[in-house]
Write a structure and sequence with these properties.
Layout: E1 20-25, E2 32-37, H1 48-51, H2 53-57, H3 62-69, H4 73-77, H5 81-89, H6 103-113, H7 115-122, H8 127-136, E3 145-147, E4 150-153, H9 155-164, H10 176-194, H11 206-209, H12 214-223, H13 225-228, E5 231-237, E6 243-249, H14 255-268, E7 273-276, H15 284-290, E8 303-304, E9 307-308, E10 319-322, E11 330-333, E12 338-342, E13 348-351, E14 357-360, E15 372-377, E16 382-383, E17 387-390, E18 395-396, E19 401-407, E20 416-423, E21 431-436, E22 439-444, E23 448-458, E24 461-473
Parallel strand pairs: 16-24, 18-24
Antiparallel strand pairs: 1-2, 3-4, 5-6, 7-14, 8-9, 10-15, 11-12, 11-15, 12-13, 13-14, 17-19, 19-22, 20-23, 21-22, 23-24
Helix pairs in contact: 5-7, 6-7, 8-10
Length: about 475
């Protein structure tokens, strides 16, 4: 095994400096480069959020927030494992764990943009410090968690740590000894959380299940088999009846968790406006494209089986692409895996992953705006085959018949309809039509064919139509 030795020497002597061996996992594979580092920094990073919170929260873009939290690589390499781990626990952007549609993506994003996390992850000898901290961080008071040497730990910090402390991200945890210790810690956390349902929801154990023992995983599944699965996969429809895969949550946050997450985002983005509370029932894509309501029952992923299923909402559909936010109704952050509703005043309103619904400026949010795409309501009405009036034909002349609007998309879509009748006879106009919310009554005043048009509107603009023929016959027809 190739060994590389080097020593970091600071320009000035540091009292009480600590020397320790730091091993690094090489980028080339599983080989480990053992490095001797003079770890002179024993204190965690002091972030801008710790010294000037107002300046911190005035930073808009997520890229700039990452930059404000970062330290030079050389400084990170001079930190002890314990100092690095404390810096990870108190990292100001741990709240991203609830903002991203996939929590693991939040962890990857943080590692990619933080030299503290990168350094801790690549150290092969960091397992003891990581596992010691992981075992020490638990919730006793959701408003203010204080444990051992790790003060002011928030719920977001703890859940971020649950996802971060995983061999998928930290190779040092792949050893048999570390794996056994990690399982034991995860098992104890799961048991404690299941016993404290007023504070913890079942969903809080999701990241722990990934590293827990088979015995505990089996016990959880047997105790609550339906709720153990986070989501149930289903199929719903877009406004024009295209199939889309959705997910129904089998459980949600506890009231304590919800309050903590809400407060974290209100505090982290004071210039945004809080609209509604954190929930795992629906996400940004579902809120923007499916239903902008707190009653929304579905979570929607942008991609399904490698295909961008969100495009079904703007390809021969209710929306179409446009070049800017002017006149746009929706926005898709293609590099940020995020969707938003564009308001007439230029503000955006969006659900931030599992976190709250917020009103915000385009870049005052946890997502990259690079590659943002805009969409407006389609400019021309579209013939939709699965949209029509449902009712009898033929019908008896001078007899009122009821017809209702028939479509195969959810009822909250496109509720504004009109009906027009074209009398195909040589002496047209002999009919009566009474329309109301869910349909209409039609009376044909003479025998023959009538063409009936049904049109659907979105925000006052016609977007879909269909037509059909209804035959009127005499009462003595056989």
């Amino acid at each position: 095994m190739k060994k590389i030795f080097y020593v970091f020497v600071l320009g000035a002597a540091v009292m009480g400096c600590q020397k320790e061996n730091v091993s690094e996992v090489s980028d080339a594979g599983n080989s480990i480069n053992e490095q001797v580092v003079e770890a002179t920094i024993t204190e965690p990073v002091t972030y801008l959020a710790d010294t000037d919170f107002d300046s911190w929260t005035s930073i808009a873009s997520i890229e700039d927030r990452f930059e404000a939290c970062n330290i030079p690589e050389s400084e990170a390499r001079s930190m002890t494992d314990e100092a690095l781990m404390k810096s990870v626990i108190n990292y100001p952007l741990n709240y991203l764990i609830f903002a991203y549609n996939n929590p693991e993506d939040a962890v990857r994003k943080v590692i990619e943009n933080s030299n503290v996390h990168k350094e801790l992850v690549r150290r092969a000898g960091s397992a003891d410090a990581i596992l010691d901290a992981f075992a020490s961080t638990t919730v006793s008071d959701m408003e203010s968690m204080r444990t051992k040497d790790y003060c002011n730990v928030t719920y977001s910090d703890e859940i971020f740590l649950d996802y971060f402390v995983n061999p998928e991200f930290i190779p040092a945890l792949e050893s048999k000894e570390a794996s056994v210790t990690l399982q034991s810690i995860a098992d104890k956390k799961i048991e404690a959380r299941l016993a404290n349902e007023e504070v913890y929801s079942l969903r809080s154990i999701s990241p722990l299940i990934a590293v827990a023992s088979d015995k505990v995983v089996k016990a959880v599944a047997e105790k609550q088999p339906m709720r153990a699965a986070a989501y149930t996969r289903k199929t719903s429809k877009t406004p024009f009846g295209k199939d889309i895969v959705v997910y129904s949550a089998n459980s949600d946050f506890s009231s304590s968790e919800r309050k903590s997450i809400d407060n974290t985002y209100k505090r982290s983005y004071p210039s945004a406006t809080f609209v509604s509370s954190a929930t795992k029932k629906y996400n940004c894509h579902s809120y923007a494209w499916f239903w902008d309501s707190s009653y929304n029952p579905f979570w929607i992923d942008a991609y399904e089986n490698g295909s961008l299923q969100l495009s079904k909402f703007w390809t021969n559909a209710l929306f179409e692409s446009c070049s800017s936010a002017t006149g746009a109704k929706r926005a898709y952050y293609s590099t940020g895996d995020h969707s938003a509703i564009v308001r007439p005043d230029g503000k955006f309103i969006s659900k931030w992953g599992q976190a709250p619904v917020m009103i915000h400026d385009k870049n005052y949010c946890p997502y990259s705006t690079s590659g943002i795409q805009y969409f407006k309501v389609r400019s021309s009405s579209m013939y939709v085959n699965n949209y029509h009036l449902d009712g009898p034909s033929p019908i008896i002349v001078n007899t009122s018949q009821y017809y209702y609007y028939e479509h195969d998309w959810p009822d909250h879509f496109l509720t504004d309809h009109t009906v027009e009748v074209e009398d195909m006879q040589s002496t047209p106009g002999k009919y009566s039509l009474e329309t109301f919310g869910s349909g209409c009554y039609l009376t044909c005043g003479q025998t023959g064919a009538y063409r009936v048009f049904v049109r659907s509107y979105y925000e006052g603009q016609e977007v879909a139509f269909n037509s059909q023929y209804i035959i009127s016959i005499g009462a003595d027809w056989r």
